[in-house]
Structure formats: C-alpha cells, structure tokens
Amino acid sequence: MAEKKQAPLNTLLTIYFYHTRLTRESYEEWKEYKFPGHILYGLPLLENYGIRSVMHKCKYFSGRLKLMFYATKEILCCKEKYDVLYATSFRGIEPVIFLRALGLYRKPIVIWHHTAVVTNPKPWREQISRLFYKGIDQMFLFSRKLIQDSQKTRKAPSHKLKLIHWGPDLPFYDHLLAEMPDRKPEGFISTGKENRDVDTLLQSFSATNEELDLYIAVSCGNINYKKILDRYSVPDSIHIHYTDGVIPYELGKLVARKSCIVICCLDFPYTVGLTTLVEAFALGIPVICSRNPNFEIDIDKEEIGITVEYNDVQGWIDAIRYIADHPEEARRMGENARKLAEERFNLEIFSREIAESLLEISNISSKNRTFA
C-alpha cells in the first residue's frame, strides 16, 4: 500500500483554498481513509511541499448571486494571512477575479478550469469575459485538448494554462480493497450524475441481458433522470438505485464488487465522466466509456477498456458483450488501468505538479508584482 503521508516541510507558502464542497470535514475524513484525496484537488498533500492551507468555509446556496456574495465576503474579510488564492473552480469567486483584473485584489489567483475557455458570440459579453480572464494568474486544465481549444480564443496566454495529470488517491482505494479480501467482482456498474446518457445505456443493456447496477441522482442540472428512466420497461437484469448524497467511500465499495465500469455520457465539451474513470484506474477495473476527445487518456490505446461513439446503441451492445465474453481480456485491461494510475495519473503526481505551480506563481508575484 502506498504511503499516505510524509513529514511536512516548514511553511514556504500559505494558500486560501476555495472549494464548493465541505472542505474541513472532507479533509478529516481523508485522514481516516474515508474520503478520496483527489476530490480535494491536491489539498491533503500540499503540506508535504511546505504549503499551508486556509480552508474556505463552504456553505450551500440555491442561487449563484448569494454564493458569490458569501464567497467574496469570506475571502476579502479573511483575517488569516495567505499568499495565493487557489480555487477548484471559479464558481462563486467571480467578483474576486474581476477585482484582481482591476488591480483591487492583490493575491495571485490560481483556479481549475473544467472546460475549455470559449468565445462568447455577443461582443459586449466577450469584452467582459476578456477582462475576467485577466484576473486569473494561472489555470489548471485536465487535458491538452482543453488547453489547445482555450488557446484559440486568445483570452489567456499559454503560460497561464497548465496541464495537470489529475488521478486517484491510490492509498484510499488500497485501504478500501484491503477491507474486502473476499470480494469476487461480477457484473457492470454505472455511477456519476453529470450529463449521463441513460437512454443509450438502458437500450444497450436491455438488449444484452447482462447485469447492470445503475447509481444515479433523481436529477442533476437540467436533466431529470427519473423522468427519463420511468419511460422504460426495465428488465430484471437492470437495477436502478437513486442516490442522494452517497458517500464516496460507500460508493467505492459498491464499484469494487463489479467487473466492469460503464461511463455512458452525453456529448459535452469537457471531461464528462473523468471522476468515474480515475476510480476505475485505482480499482483496476476495465471501462466501457463514451469516446470523449477531451480526456487526456486514450482509453483504447492504453488498452484499459473500450470506447464507443456518442449515441451508438449497437456499439455499446457490442462492447458489453465483448467484455462479458472475454473475462481474461477484461482482467488484463483492469491491470493496465491500475498500472497507468501508479505511473502517470494519481494524487501524489498531480499534487506535486500543483505545488510546483503554486510556489512558482507566488515567487513570480512577489518579484514582479504589478499591483503594489
């Protein structure tokens, strides 16, 4: 099992860590192997590089404006000293970013940008957007494809766009597997709630009679999954479980008992399904996945699973049957996935990449501060 911690260094840098989920509680759970550290975007291991974190006190709001008002107030009124604002997304901190662009907020801002930067068709909104991106000192993105698409807009220079090899918290999953010594993986499972193509998923599995456990929210964003699923006459081989804040640890146990993870998504211009994909890496389980060009990982080339074009029911049927009929090949795919996680995509690797960037941006800011 990989080591989870090492002795922290003397503090070289203090960050304000902004997340749109409960951070302190999740961090404490991580210490007990009850929460995966990659969902905290490197926070648990940053202290190993001399980076201390002031954790944002997350609160949930139904409206975006209320969130922005609260988050901005918390950041601007923070009494603890910090050097860099590090955010897992810009949702809620838009006013702070504009203040940075105008020279009224002096701390460097580093964020995760989950999609490519895009051009707005309305000229006045495009001008506002360009001002907005001037307030971001560095953006972390999940793939080179997202970076390349962002560069086309000319809103952010290349030095502001950094690829991070986001991957799973291997010790978390190793600990989870150690608690399941008698597990015998069998069947297919689908988890995740963002932009899932449940129509294609149900049609394909209904035609194969293979066992599928589908864990999904009643609704997410503008999609009401229950309304869609209720239209189908579901065979006994398909089991639908509606989730309401399922704990990642408990869901991980359910996934670990399956022999294949299916990630059937709608066509959206970001890394839909990536969280589920990296969980498959850690657990050493093969995947059948929608062919998302925004992934940094080439699933077919790495031989960790099978990809299928969007909306291709027959392609899904063929892939499901192939995995079911070739258990040894599927097992080899799972082994390749685990090796990929150990060598190229995991919490330790991307935490180091983040730490190096945060320390660098802090040094650049202190030496060449433009807002003295």
From TrEMBL:
One of its GO terms (molecular function) is glycosyltransferase activity. InterPro entries: Glyco_trans_1. Keywords: Transferase. The keyword Translocase does not apply. It comes from the Bacteria. Residues 192-339 form the Glycosyl transferase family domain. Pfam families: Glycos_transf_1. Coiled coil: none annotated. The keyword Transferase applies. This is Glycosyltransferase. It comes from Bacteroides xylanisolvens. The lineage of its organism: Bacteria, Pseudomonadati, Bacteroidota, Bacteroidia, Bacteroidales.
